[in-house]
Amino acid sequence: MKTSRIFATAAAVALLATSMGACGSAKNAENKAKGNQVNVVATTTQICDYVTQIASTADAKSGLSLNKTDSQGKKSVIGAPQDKAKSTINLTCLLAPNASAHEHEMTPAQSKALSKADLMLVSGVDLEHFLDQAVKATGFKGTMGVTSGILTADEIKDSKAEAAKEKDLPYKVDRGIAKVHAEKWPFPPEEGEKEPEFQYDPHIWTSTKNTMIQVKNIGYFLGKALPKSKSIFDEHVEKFVKSLTDLDAWATKALNSVPQKHRVLFTSHDAFGYFSRDYNVKFIGAALSDFNSQQDATADHIQKAAEDVKKSGAVAIFAENSNNSKSIKAVAAAAGVKAVIGDDA
Fold first, then answer.
1. Torsion sign (Cα): 248, 249, 251, 256
2. Nearest Cα to 245, choosing from 216, 222, 204?
3. 5, 28, 263, 319: which could join 328 in a potential S-S bond, CB 3.0 to 4.6 Å?
4. In the beta sheet, which residues pair with residue 40?
5. Least confident span in 34-48, 137-151, 219-233, 320-334
6. Do 317 and 309 meet the contact criterion of CB atoms below 8 Å apart?
7. How far apart are CA 325 and CA 329, in angstroms?
8. How far is 260 from 281, CA to CA, in rounded Å?
9. Which pTM was predicted?
10. Which pLDDT score, from 0 to 100, does residue 187 have?
11. All domains of the chain in start order, with CATH
12. Are 331 and 309 within 8 A, CB to CB?
């Protein structure tokens, strides 16, 4: 008898779960049919974060639901429950934190999401060429929203010619309502290469001013896709920009407190040009570029890097999580400066 009750209870729970899932799926299908649902793919961790902040609301009564799948495939629902949502954003994020874009391999789930995407949000300025094959292979036919307002270096040189080429693409390109000022790539070709990696610096998000432009463009893209929730996006964009303005003021004050001769930046990646421009920092570049987590730097490289650090006048080395901490510590010790590694950096 007791066993029968257990089975009966389990069956009831299973039936309820099935009903709720079916209800949520039915609501999603209804929203899709009415144009109240949009499938979004975010290429970078930064864009994933921006969309999450702009499209998230703690108010279930708002009718907006964000169904997010992160780079590891973990799913979460923010805002209105799926079965009560009036507008739904299905967000899939591609790149993982601390991962190299050059080494990214699309998972089957990510490829499927891209094939069904209504909106693909990219950073631009030639950053996403690592996804060119994926865009082609998945048959993406939605809108590519360029959060920086600049998709490639070629359009900076000849925007009309690029616009003509885009007419033959199977998808639409939307550059939003504002664009960043792209700086030329200042570094020479890498060893063994004839051409520099980029023509213009694609690492636009290291500037809070550029981030504000990205955030405004994302709000614009989402508002076009889901007009009924536009007021929510506009409100969140306004708050986001305010917080970025405050952050910019704080960073300016903090960095101005550092004597100019010590305002020198060595990195493990040539990614901080815009940051250095905004805050008057001398950016020497990636003196530590090949100290990755998979290999130790050679003794010669450590000595050369240490000499560069000494000459620069820098008093500390800040390293990314992806760096080989053993090599960074060796450089710091040889140069007589402090090493700030991982999360502390």
1. positive
2. 216
3. 319
4. 91, 119
5. 320-334
6. yes
7. 6
8. 8
9. 0.84
10. 82
11. 32-249 (3.40.50.1980), 258-344 (3.40.50.1980)
12. yes
Of residues 305, 312, 313, 310, the one with CA closest to residue 268: 305
Q: Could you tell me if 138 and 164 are in contact, meaning their C-beta atoms sit under 8 angstroms apart?
A: no
Amino acid identity of residue 115, one-letter, is S
Only one residue has tokens 């060429």, namely 129
275-297 tens-digit pLDDT:
999 999 988 766 565 555 556 67
pLDDT tens-digit series, residues 121-137: 999 999 999 999 999 99
Tell me how far apart the alpha carbons of residues 46 and 219 are, in angstroms, rounded to a whole number.
14
**Which DSSP symbol is given to 298?**
P
Q: How far apart are CA 66 and CA 212, in angstroms?
A: 22
Cα 80 from Cα 142, distance rounded (Å): 25
Report d(CA 65, CA 58) in Å as an integer.
10
Query: Across the chain, what does the average pLDDT equal?
Result: 86
SS3 per residue for 170-187: CCEEECCCCCCCCCECCC
Higher-pLDDT residue of 74, 313: 74
Q: Distance (Å, rounded) from C-alpha 174 to C-alpha 166?
A: 11
CA gap 298, 306 in Å, rounded? 12
Contact status, residue 204 vs residue 125, Cβ threshold 8 Å: yes
Helix/strand/coil for 169: coil
Dump strand ranges (E) for the chain. 37-42, 64-69, 75-79, 87-93, 119-122, 143-146, 172-174, 264-266, 282-285, 316-318, 338-340
Pairwise CA distance, residues 114 & 108, whole Å: 10
pLDDT score of 174 more than 70: yes
Write out the two tokens for 227. 């007009």
Residue 209 and residue 219: Cα distance in Å, rounded?
16
